[in-house]
Amino acid sequence: MTHQPTGAPRVAIVTGAARGIGAATARRLAADGCLVAALDLDESQAAATSAAIEADGGRAIAVGADVSDAAAVEAAVARVAAELGAPTILVNNAGILRDNLLFKMSDGDWDAVMQVHLRGAFLMTRAAQAHQVEAKWGRIVNLSSTSALGNRGQANYAAAKAGLQGFTKTLAIELGRYGVTANAVAPGFIATDMLRQTAERMGITFEQLLEGAAKEIPVGRVGQPEDVAAAVAFFCSEAASFVSGQVLYVAGGPKA
Ligand code: NAP
Predict the structure, then answer these.
(1) How many Å apart are CA 200 and CA 210, to the nearest integer?
(2) How far is the CA of 107 from the centre of ligand 1 (A)?
(3) I need a labelling partner for 68 at 20 to 30 A (CA). Which of 93, 118, 120, 237 fits?
(4) Which parts of the sequence belong to the Ketoreductase domain (predicted)?
(5) Mean pLDDT, all residues of the chain
């Protein structure tokens, strides 16, 4: 997959790129030829990802920003444009969990998840689309989840991840005329630090969680961050210009 149709490399921002799916996606897009801004809450954490990309011969910068902070987002996108060029690829991946059964879920648990997933994706997309529309080319990929279909203990997260699907489809409708596509990737069980919290909450080890999950997944294994990165990379590619408003489940089977 190439991102250099006219010689000029595309510039991609990946949020939540310090680890997990975001780090794998940043590395994959760099391997595909993009200049990459690895954005995360803490710039020094994101620097591990940008350093890995540069060690592999790519070009990347680390950017520290909270995606739910409007001023920080504007400044981060402006910095990327100044240092790498207009960001025309945006992967909204930053995410948090605040799981609890509904009757135990606090206002803070609800708000924190909405802030990062929904407000974060909104702010990042609003800032990036100005560059995409001007370039008359863009790719937006939002990280949804199989939890969008409903998941016990995740009323907040499921609502946010379903919300991202509606957000994605609306972006596709509004921005298509400017050469911008918007799609969502909805992973199932992917072995990242995020699920270590889930294991802790369940009172089991991470290994036990992985083993139990693998038994329920048709392909017989849990997902790896690179499995998701490959799907994101397809949506970001030149070849995917006629694919927009779609949700691709990457879950080793038809459902979670
Ligand atoms: P992860 O390992 O927890 O990584 C998430 C990253 O996002 C972390 O580096 C985190 O930084 C960063 N982040 C959190 N809040 C942020 C904010 N306000 N601004 C900027 N960055 C922020 O998660 P993951 O498993 O790779 O998940 C990535 C995405 O895929 C998420 O949207 C998640 O909901 C989705 N997803 C994951 C799975 C799965 O099974 N793992 C399944 C379906 C969907 P800190 O470390 O500093 O908090």
Answers:
(1) 13
(2) 21
(3) 237
(4) 10-188
(5) 96
In this structure, what token pair is assigned to residue 109? Answer: 């648990």
**So where are the chain's domains?**
11-188+225-249, 189-222
- Ligand 1 mean position to 97 CA, how many Å? 8
Question: For tokens 């939540």, what's the residue?
Answer: 16
145 Cβ inside 6 Å of ligand 1: yes
C-alpha span between 90 and 15 (Å, rounded): 8
The residue from 110, 122, 157, 167 that is catalytic is 157
The class of domain 11-188+225-249 in CATH terms is alpha beta
Three-state secondary-structure class, residue 133: helix
Per the annotation, the verdict on 178 as an active-site residue is no
Per-residue pLDDT tens for 76-122?
A: 999 999 999 999 999 999 999 999 999 999 999 999 999 999 999 99
Centroid of ligand 1 to alpha carbon of 16 (angstroms): 6
**Cα–Cα distance for residue pair 4/255, rounded to 1 Å:** 35
